[in-house]
Amino acid sequence: MAVIVPTLRHERRLWNDGLTRVVGVDEVGVAPTCGAVVAAAVIMRPGCHRIPGVRDSKTLSAGQRERLDPLIRKRALAIGVGAASVREIDQLNIYHATHLAMRRAIARVGGHEHVLVDGNRIAGFEHQVGPYTNVVDGDARVYTIACASVVAKVVRDRMMARLAARYPGYGWEHNQGYATRDHRDAIRAMGLTPFHRRSFLALQRTLAGDQLDFDLLADPAASPATHERLERELMPVMADDATLDALDLSLLDLDEPLDLDEPLDLDEPLDLDEPPVEAATR
């Protein structure tokens, strides 16, 4: 299957209309069974040239993404990163939590005139972010969205690697929280961490020993009966401290490659009610 190279066609149309702050936004972490869902928003300078190699992050290796991320950050006019925590995913469901992460990322670019977003139309999104254009397969076809997909993927992978150092044995440093066999085996052996999405059907099936195929993209909202069943499971659930949702959000602004030998600072909680901080322009 031929690799699709994203273009600046959508951006140029808006630039030609006089707009200068066109933001591309994309998310990562919808399907994993743990960790925050992360979104990035990227504004490129009008008339910019594409960075060779930038495309949908899913088609790139980890090494390629790590090499492209600093180039994107250097050339971008502004970058914003946002997330929805595990608690918010379980409360809102992954669909609404993903849009929340996108809105937070957009709020951090320091102002914009138009949004280009991957996927289908989003109910009420224009009221929340202003004028926007949705593009199906936008992360593969639209340059600024592809840039956002790379930034978001790098940030989330680093976050999961840091969490893996705190909760070893689940393989998050290489499976990023997806329901791989080693991850499912670890859940059965060690139980859930505070960063597992308890509303996800895949987790409920894993704890129950169900061997059915996992439908990770199904609506993860669980019924009260399912939650009661989950609570009856004998698998241990790890004790949590007050920063369980603050931690996965406080790890997002990672501009440097991850150093797993660097100690993880867990002592400073994040105020989740604090308004978004305007991103520094680049």
What does this structure look like?
The chain is an alpha/beta fold. It has a domain of 150 residues: Ribonuclease H-like superfamily/Ribonuclease H (Nucleotidyltransferase, domain 5, 2-Layer Sandwich). 40% of the residues lie in helices and 12% in strands. It has twelve helices and five strands. It has a five-stranded mixed sheet with strand order 3-2-1-4-5. Helix 5 links the parallel strand 4 and strand 5. The C terminus is likely disordered.
Layout: helices, strands, pairs:
Elements lengths: L8 H8 L5 E7 L8 E8 L17 H14 E9 L1 H7 L1 H14 L6 E5 L6 H5 L2 E4 L2 H4 L1 H24 L5 H4 L5 H10 L10 H8 L15 H9 L11 H7 L32
Parallel strand pairs: 1-4, 4-5
Antiparallel strand pairs: 1-2, 2-3
Helix pairs in contact: 2-7, 3-4
The helix tally amounts to 12
Taking strands numbered 1, 2, ... along the chain, how are they ordered across the largest sheet?
3-2-1-4-5
Please identify the oligomeric state: single chain
Give the helix/strand class. Answer: alpha/beta
Q: Compute the separation of the termini in Å.
A: 35 Å
Overall CATH class of the domain at 9-158: Alpha Beta
Mean pLDDT: 79
CATH architecture of the domain at 9-158: 2-Layer Sandwich
Give me the CATH fold name of the domain at 9-158: Nucleotidyltransferase, domain 5
Helix content: 40-55%
* Main beta sheet strand tally, sense and closure: 5 strands, mixed
Q: Could you tell me the number of beta strands?
A: 5
CATH level-4 homologous superfamily of the domain at 9-158: Ribonuclease H-like superfamily/Ribonuclease H
Low-confidence stretches: 210-222, 226-244, 257-282
Rg of Cα set: 19 Å
Succession of helices and strands? HEEHEHHEHEHHHHHHH
How large a portion of the residues is in β-strands, by DSSP E?
5-15%
